[in-house]
From TrEMBL:
Residues 1-28 form the signal peptide. This is Spherulation-specific family 4 protein. The keyword Signal applies. The keyword Signal applies. InterPro entries: GH, Spherulin4. It comes from Actinocrispum wychmicini.
Length: 264
């Protein structure tokens, strides 16, 4: 399934920076079934409105610490970009923990190519983990992701591995990830969606929901309530829509932070 985090390929953006943010590393580690953290895809870039959005993120959600940095369509790209490195360093200094965006194209990208992207992300940008996008969700593909998971952990044992199938996933993928994005889609879809039954057996910090097209604050609060009931430790809700729902902060941003207990 092609989900909105693939917008970089769709619009041909080059040096964009993509960040997903949650609370502090200690809080994230303690995140259980009854606690919840902000997880925001911040596909803002380093030009135009981007710098202002980065400042708001650092100033208004200062304990944020988990992030996806996507430099080019499939990963960190062929060379280090100094302007992106500066954004990464400033964002991390505010408490944000960074994940590098790497596309897997449902196992269609060669493993060696993905491994090279992972290595470059760690070397160039000093990120704290990897966000593997377009992840498969059936166990017949598990070996591919096992290799990626093991490589990440061999480089940085405490690094986070996040898989984004964006939909319900076979339970076997808990073996090769720290966090699974098991929902990415619209508000209208989310209100009738249900997670897999096995999800309840795991801590909420293992799951992440991304919901766009949520037009007002009351709908946002409805999503947060439902996401807690559905065992999501990380969530982000926005009023923006396709083709790129992750290119701005929602109009109810401060209310969302308050609802999650994440505001300064």
């Amino acid at each position: 399934m092609r989900t909105p985090l693939r917008w970089l390929r769709a619009v041909g953006i080059g040096a964009a920076v993509c960040v997903v943010v949650v609370t502090s590393q200690a809080d994230a580690a303690a995140c259980g079934n009854n606690s919840q953290r902000l997880g925001i895809p911040a596909y803002w870039g380093t030009e135009g409105t981007g710098p202002g959005l980065w400042r708001r993120l650092a100033n208004e959600a200062p304990n944020a610490s988990l992030a996806i940095v996507g430099i080019q369509a499939s990963g960190p790209g062929p060379v280090l970009l100094p302007e992106v490195k500066r954004v990464v360093d400033r964002t991390r200094s505010s408490g944000v923990r960074l994940l590098s965006y790497v596309d897997t194209s449902y196992t269609n990208r060669p493993v060696d190519t993905v491994l090279a992207d992972i290595a470059n992300a760690f070397i160039w940008y000093g990120t704290d983990g990897i966000f593997l996008d377009q992840a498969a969700n059936t166990c017949d593909k598990l070996g591919y992701y096992q290799a990626l998971h093991d490589y990440v952990k061999s480089i940085r044992p405490n690094a986070l591995v996040v898989l984004n199938p964006g939909t319900n996933t076979d339970e076997c993928y808990t073996k090769v990830s720290d966090v699974l994005v098991d929902f990415e889609g619209t508000y209208d879809t989310y209100v009738t969606w249900s997670p897999s039954d096995w999800v309840r057996a795991y801590p909420a910090k293992r799951f992440w929901h991304l919901v766009f097209g949520t037009s007002c604050a009351s709908q946002m609060r409805d999503v947060i309530k439902k996401s807690r009931q559905r065992n999501a430790g990380y969530v982000f809700v926005t009023d923006t829509a396709l083709p790129n729902p992750w290119n701005a902060l929602p109009a109810y941003w401060r209310s969302e932070l308050a609802a999650l207990g994440s505001s300064r």
